[in-house]
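Record pair follows.
FIRST:
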Amino acid sequence: KYQTRMKRFEVLEQLGEGTFAQVVKAKDFKNNEEVALKVMKEEYESEQDALEEPEIKVHMDLGSHPYICSLKEATFNQNQGRLSLRFDLMDHDLSSLIKYR
């Protein structure tokens, strides 16, 4: 289980992994829904450092766009120094759609 300070998420399965993050399907107990969590691999010293992550800034600048999954929330785990980005869970990822079209 991936645990935040509120024990908010339960990891259901890993969806992918890259150089900078791991993406998992998780149960969000706060909203009672399944979500995609992008858990950044970098360990941050503080919440302020984590919130300066370039990916957060890009999503904030983009705002809402019909072809981009919007960032719903950024959560910082103080104990682990980890940043998680919460997105809506999609049926497919872009690389799979391109590969199998």
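SECOND:
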Amino acid sequence: MGIEDLEEKKDLLGQNFDTDKDDKPEKIEHKEGGWGWLVVAASFTVICVLDGIGYSFGVFLEPLIHDLEVGRGALSMAGSLQVGVYSMSGPVVAAVVARWGERKACMVGSVMSAMGVLGASYAVGIKTLILCYSVVTGLGFGLMYLPSIVIVSQHFTTRRALATGIVLCAAGAGTFLFAPLTEQLVEHLGWRGAMRVLACTCLGCVVCGMAMVPGHAGKEESSEGEDANKSGQKDYGNKVDRKFLAKIIGVELSSTPALSVLFLLTMGDCLSALSLYIPYTHLPPAAIAAGISPSNAAFLISAIGVTNTAGRLVSGWLSDKPSINPMLLILVSIMAASPTHYIFSMISSYWIFLTLACIFGFLTGVWVSAIPSALVNLVGVPLLAPAFGLLTAFRGVMVLSGPPLAGLVVDMVGVKGSAMIVSGVAMTVASGFYVLSVIVSKRLSARGEYQAL
């Protein structure tokens, strides 16, 4: 066959015989929104259910004390342990997500949490309650929580942080909705009947899990890596082989060149989480000791919750801006929130208490919502699940230890406002870690750009 015949055949078939051009990987087409907003709605519903149930455990305290004949401290531990289990299960859940995907993990978690809550409704002692409600339900919630956060990043690029911020607002919405709902259920059906209804609600999240189909945004980014805002991960240089850490956190995450920044970010997040939950427990008593009425003191927590939700939305909107660095946003919000703790311990005016509570709630909402975007910038969408799982596990430990530590200091000093000082010190030290993370991130980014030349 001659050259002319070959050219004629190429023209007839409309094919290009240049193998160099054909070998280029086909661009994965990604459309913003669409099914992604359904995924956001599904994720929002899942987190609304699990956080709503988890933070409404206080409604069950009195009937459980009466029926099971156990102390308030032991029952309170059951509620706290559930939150701790689903937080500290992060690395295990990340491994499950890597193997099964977000969709199956969330569906299995929904069934497991439903079985746990249903089993707790038949409890006749504290051991059965802790096994079912704290451990089984906690693991189920862990399998629901992490996939609901990371799946959103696979469906969005330009509005990724906003979509994630909307999902994170579900925690406040769940607490707002489920607390009165659970109270009404307990009043009409008893605590056992109320738990069975909540078990059905958990089981209904299987439908939400079915909607969590994988998106193309993560695949697009890993194959192209063009724009810093869309590709998520910045160029921090070449991968590093860390065999020891690979056995603990996985090969891919351990080899990322930004691991040192991730470590500093995790330390800052741990101390911030420790500081965050102290006011939820100790601010009302401190305000009452300063002369504020109990009803007004309780309203401070509601004010923190409302403004925290607003902060998460604003943070999501800001983090999507190309000119905004999520790590700098975290640093500014935590540094600005730190002084509020110290001022809490020195004031006696209700309106100053309320103003500071609103500022604290808004700024900590900005911090919480910016964390996923910062992780995407560090490790990219494909490694968001293991990175967020690792951070969540450490955060769970701090959430459990923060309020008891502050309570111990109050018992030693005898001043209720000293709990706020403990919270302020923790958040101030967290600011230091965030400063280091920003500095190291900029240096690694500059080194990566130099190596790319």
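COMMENT: The CA atoms of residues 104 and 209 lie 7 Å apart.
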